Amino acid sequence: MSLLPVAQAQARLFALARRLPVETVPVGQAVGRWLAQDLVALRDQPWADLSAMDGYAVRAAEYPGPWRVAGESAAGVATPAPLAPGEAVRIFTGAPLPPGADAILIQENAIPDGDILTASADPLPVGRHIRAAASDFARNATLLAAGARLGPARIALAVLGGHGDVPVCAKPRVALLSTGNELVPPGAPTPPGFLPSSNAPMLAAMLAGVPCDIIDLGIVPDDLDAMVAALKRAAQADIIVSTGGASVGDHDLVRPAFVQAGGSLDFWKIAMRPGKPLMAGRLGDALFLGLPGNPVSAFVTATLFLLPLVRHISGATDPLPLVGEAVLAGPLPAIGDRDDYLRAWRSPDGLVSVTSQDSAASAAMAQADCLILRPARSPAAAPGERVMVLPLP
Ligand SMILES: Nc1nc2c(c(=O)[nH]1)N[C@H]1C(S)=C(S)[C@@H](COP(=O)(O)OP(=O)(O)OC[C@H]3O[C@@H](n4cnc5c(N)ncnc54)[C@H](O)[C@@H]3O)O[C@H]1N2
Ligand code: MOO
Q1: In the structure, which protein residues have their CB atom closer than 6 angstroms to any atom of ligand 1?
Q2: What pLDDT, in 10s, does the model give residues 319-366?
Q3: Atom of ligand 2 at shortest range from CA of 277
Q4: What are the residue ranges spanned by the domains of the chain?
Q5: pTM of the entire structure?
Q6: 90: alpha, beta or left, given left = phi > 0 and alpha = psi -120 to 50?
Q7: Atom 2 of ligand 2 has which residue's CA nearest to it?
Q8: What confidence tens digit (pLDDT) does each residue in 254-282 have?
Q9: What topology is assigned to 324-391 in CATH?
Q10: Where in this chain does the record put each MoaB/Mog domain (predicted)?
Q11: In a mutational test of the pocket of ligand 1, which residue from 181, 183, 190, 294 has the highest number of ligand atoms less than 8 Å from its CB?
């Protein structure tokens, strides 16, 4: 198989995937999820012309008074009695305007004397300190389109639009398999020949920013039967992610195990660095992503494939990472025939490449807050040059 360009591999992965079924959940459980249908306003906001300040509702043409204070309007009451000429109504923030009033005199500019009121300063134009009915949004307006992510401001909008429940895609279940005879669980002793398995905790941490349920199936030895059994167990999930065993060595058994478990492979090997041995396919109803074992390769491929896949099946319309531009603080070498995703951090002087770009260099990876994308065959770049950058969450 020749090396597949990243964008083509992402498109093929999305084409393999199906959106998860729609469910209706209370808004409190929808945070960070994507709307599965357009959300339409069930009410006007504001519901009437409301005062934006504490003061007096008056007719602007009668400025500066005197007015006779004829009553009161507070939030939580229905429409007050109409305002007769020469009258003012005491009013509070969020309260409905009496019919006939067209401006609010704030109480700081009002001089009450018994029930007679005059204005002390500032002209009073029509509409001053009034929030017009439906000026925020009107009933039947589309508040949010399907595919919008429900952050805090959109939760507020949905609730003000009259919704207690919202339609979202079901939460994906993501099964994690860590392959390798050399691996021990986090915190366990590491006699010679062994190392702590860091990929599953890292992937779980990356997935913590995206609503999903994680099923950690632990460490699987480099043994064909054990891997086939583990993959079959994992097939109950919506997405199966393995790390390690993806390359061409005698102990790299993920691909044959996947095929023996009944999986159909769609692609293997991507024109990217790190992350070349990435593979993807379907196993029953589950999507399968085989990530390379090197921690940096697993991190970068998860950023470019796993997180976008989770967002895609969850209903996101823009599942791919954001690509911006920034200047380089130092020089970069020319690039070979794979797109390079360099780990870097943002300094006041521009992007700084981390101390090692080796795909096993975990200490250097931990310095990064972004990836510099250098397309295949880019020439060397000088300080001050603009390059493509993907911020890391
Ligand atoms: N002859 C070739 N050798 C390699 C090629 C190649 O094209 N030809 N590709 C290289 C590239 S690129 C990568 S990336 C790696 C990927 O290898 P695997 O996916 O098969 O990963 P392993 O060999 O199982 O492990 C690599 C490395 O990562 C460590 N590891 C594995 N799992 C974990 C984990 N859960 N936590 C922490 N560290 C882990 C493992 O111990 C190895 O050191 O292949 C190159 N080889
Ligand atoms: O793709 Mo590997 O991840 O270059 O080291």
Answers
A1: 178, 180, 182-183, 195, 197-199, 243-248, 252, 274, 276-277, 292-295, 297, 359-360
A2: 999 999 999 999 999 999 999 999 999 999 999 999 999 999 999 999
A3: 1
A4: 6-20+170-313, 23-45+137-169, 50-131, 324-391
A5: 0.93
A6: beta
A7: 274
A8: 999 999 999 999 999 999 999 999 999 99
A9: Beta-clip (2.40.340)
A10: 175-312
A11: 294
